[in-house]
Structures are given as C-alpha cells and as structure tokens.
Amino acid sequence: MKFADLHVHTFYSDSTFSPEEVVSCARDKGLAAIAICDHDSVDGIVPCTKLGREMGVEIIPGIELTIEKADAEIHILGYFMDYETAWFGEKLREIQKARIERIHRMVEKLNAEGIAVKSEDVFALAGKGTVGRLHLAQAMLKTGKVATFKDAFDKYIGFNKPCYAANIKFTPKEAIETLLKIGGVPVMAHPNVTDKDECIPELIEYGLRGIEVYHTDHKPGVTKHYETLAKEKGLLMTGGSDCHGLGKGRVLLGGVRVPYDIVDGLREESEKIRHEYR
Ligand code: AMP
Ligand code: ZN
Ligand code: FE
Ligand code: FE
Predict the structure, then answer these.
(1) Which of 77, 89, 97, 214 is 20 to 30 A distant from 40 in Cα terms?
(2) Three-state secondary-structure class, residue 246
C-alpha cells in the first residue's frame, strides 16, 4: 500500500530541513507522496518537486495560511492550487513583509519583559524562509531566560499572550476564497490544536472542503471525534505530521501518514473546484 504525509514544512518557512533533507527523509520513510505546506510561502515546491522526481517521491503543492478572528487563530491548508499564479505570489510577498515587521514588534515587547532577543538573530535563524514565531522561540531559548518552546509560547508569544503581535490578517472568507480561485482545496489544519470547532460551520459556508483529522498532536480519542465530524459534514479527511525538521525538537516526518487514496480525493476535489470557479 502507498502512503502520504500531507503536512510538511521546509526551510522556506520554519523547518530546519532543506528540500534535499525533506525529500530524502520522505524516501527513507517509504512515503509515496508528501505535501509541502510552508507558512505563507510556496518557494519550497519547485525545488522539492525536482528532487522528488529524482528520488521517486511525489510532491503535492500545498501551503499553510493563517487566519485570525478576534478570539482565534486558525490555520488553513491548501492543496493542488496553481501556486505560480502572479497575484497570489504578490499577496504572499505582502504577508512575508508584514511578518518581518511583526517580529520587530514582538521583540520590542519581549525586550520590555527583560528577554534580550534581537531581531537580527531571529532573521538569521529564518535564513531565506518566511520568518515566524518558531524562529523567535528558538532565539528566546538561546537567551537562557526561557526554558522550553512550551514556555516561550504559553508565557509570551502564544496567541494573545503578552508579547504576541498579530500578523496581517486573512479573514476566514478571504483565505478560503483565495485558495478556491486558484484551484486549491482548503482544509482546516490540526483542529484540536486550534480548539475552535464552533468556527467549522462558518468555514464550510465559505467553501472549506476538508479537515486534518490525523495530526501529530491529535490523540486517538480526538481523531475519532474529528472522523465523526468530517463524515457528518461531508469533509475530506486528511492527515500529516506537520514536520518542522528539527525545529520542534525531533523529526516527525512520516509519523503521521494517510493512504494514498486521500491524495486522489484531494486531486479530484481540486478538479471540481476548477470547474466551479472558472
Ligand atoms: P507563526 O506562523 O509565526 O504564527 O508561527 C507558527 C508556528 O508556531 C508554527 O510552527 C506553530 O506550530 C508554532 N506554534 C504556535 N503556537 C504554538 C504553541 N502554543 N506551542 C508550540 N508551537 C506553537
Ligand atoms: Zn510552522
Ligand atoms: Fe499550523
Ligand atoms: Fe504546519
């Protein structure tokens, strides 16, 4: 049987892994396919696709967008979208710029709390990737004032914590419509981590097509709950490891994988969306 990991990051966002490391790791784990889902970036897709052809791993184009509501931060995965669409690229560049500015704001707040992080160090950790809070957390750990990633997020930079700063917001409707316009299949990422099930009906109204039932941070009971919910709402059930290389301590790639049928389901859904929206 063939398997796929549908949620993988590269160093084009906040994974420590290069495309070479991602694709060779997927090959070594015996995966038939992986989806590259960087935060607000599609830059990893072309290099991974090229390497995937050489190493016999199918690369599914994907992305992970962040949307914010007053009381929630929700991640939306997109699959099989036309990632080379010019206006979409421009929108991503705008968000990437705002992410840089946002780091400066969070660093200021952290400095005021006595945590001496420097923006330059955070940008150095991000390298050519979309900079984000995982890089900031890594810089915070280096100061020695924060013991763990969990502390960094729970005490300081988690959603609405004292040193958090908002990103440019895609509203839920904009994020989902953006993906649909370019043939992408919008899927709610790690719903249990997000813990906002009450938002799901609204997302479905905007065109959500799937839900990430299987995820590294989903315990078995939780998975069952989302399987039932997906069946009830007619949503595709996807799954992935959300591997960040060593960015979250250990390599998760392939730890969560789904049967390859799910990939076909997403591809067919993308075709349907293309017929509906063009
Ligand atoms: P950003 O894109 O800058 O909002 O940062 C998102 C990254 O931070 C992702 O890799 C998330 O998995 C990670 N993240 C967000 N909240 C937490 C948390 N409470 N604990 C650990 N990692 C988190
Ligand atoms: Zn991430
Ligand atoms: Fe996420
Ligand atoms: Fe992710």
Answers:
(1) 214
(2) coil
Which residues are near ligand 4, the ion (C-beta closer than 5 Å)?
64, 242
Q: With residue 73 as reference, give the H or E element that holds it.
A: strand 72-79
Structure tokens at 1: 């049987």
Structure tokens at 121: 């160090």
Per-residue pLDDT of the chain (278 residues; tens, 9 = 90+): 999 999 999 999 999 999 999 999 999 999 999 999 999 999 999 999 999 999 999 999 999 999 988 788 999 999 999 999 999 999 999 999 999 999 999 999 999 999 999 999 999 999 999 999 999 999 999 999 999 999 999 999 999 999 999 887 789 999 999 999 999 999 999 999 999 999 999 999 999 999 999 999 999 899 999 999 999 999 999 999 999 999 888 999 999 999 999 999 999 999 999 999 87
Strands 33-36 and 236-240, bridge-based pairing:
unpaired
**What lines the ligand 1 site, CB under 6 Å?**
14, 39, 66, 132-134, 149, 153, 158, 244
